[in-house]
Description:
The complex is a heterodimer of chains A (about 160) and B (about 190).
Chain A: H1 2-11, H2 16-50, H3 53-67, H4 74-80, H5 85-99, H6 104-115, H7 119-129, H8 138-161
Helix pairs in contact in A: 2-5, 4-5, 5-6, 6-8
Chain B: H1 2-19, H2 23-60, H3 63-78, H4 87-100, H5 104-121, H6 130-140, H7 148-156, H8 166-192
Helix pairs in contact in B: 2-7, 3-4, 4-5, 6-8
Amino acid sequence: xxxxxxxxxxxxxxxxxxxxxxxxxxxxxxxxxxxxxxxxxxxxxxxxxxxxxxxxxxxxxxxxxxxxxxxxxxxxxxxxxxxxxxxxxxxxxxxxxxxxxxxxxxxxxxxxxxxxxxxxxxxxxxxxxxxxxxxxxxxxxxxxxxxxxxxxxxxxxxxxxx
Amino acid sequence: xxxxxxxxxxxxxxxxxxxxxxxxxxxxxxxxxxxxxxxxxxxxxxxxxxxxxxxxxxxxxxxxxxxxxxxxxxxxxxxxxxxxxxxxxxxxxxxxxxxxxxxxxxxxxxxxxxxxxxxxxxxxxxxxxxxxxxxxxxxxxxxxxxxxxxxxxxxxxxxxxxxxxxxxxxxxxxxxxxxxxxxxxxxxxxxxx
Lengths: 162, 193
């Protein structure tokens, strides 16, 4: 893919070197924008996890989840994911610390994070920008797509890596 | 919304820590969190930088545009209300392609332009039109082939195969997108009456 893009650009007579540098420069502003939300969310999420509240809450759901053979640890990810990308990334971070990225939970969480999006944020941003107040069924449809994504991830990860 | 969640996470976490006599953990967590954030940022930064450099070439060379044109027959089926050759279709296509390549920040400007272009076709200006909702659902179903951030985060924690999840992600995201479009169709019909 890397080679393809570079050769394609060269053949189309694009100034590939300078363009690449420009693109990298743009990533700086993106990272700058990410940093404050990272700090805020890692602080909050880690407080919630390290204090033991999360384990306490999850223990209620454990038996239900073990019934369908799904690790209960993905529940917070599924709840937080549509609301805040940084918070779910912070939680994914803590899962990697605890279980490692190549564990079953690590793989499953990676796929869930990858195949869903911050539905609530996108809806408020896009509709807010053009002054739409009645969003009708868009929230249900968006969340339903996320739910399908999560169910599909569980099935696919089970088939691929178990 | 985010305000409330943020407060609940912090307040509940701290109080639970106090109740269970775990004050030291709480203090350490507060002090460490900035360091962890910075670590995380430094680790995912190189991958994002590299990928954004490459996609800039894809953008300048017209590769993204070419891919967008390929999408348009599909789009006219997904958005039957939009007149053919309307500008919003190409904006939607650009947004989708940028999303597929994992370029969230490049996708957003296209998405916002597509929305305001759809608003021109909209009859009731304060109510979301059917095309807008279809576009949003496709957008929020997380259509992507390169989940850059996750791959870099996996690398950071020493994953042996950071890209192992890519195929599983693509399949799951396809299901999510198709499921989203189906429910969008069903709800669109129900809300008409």
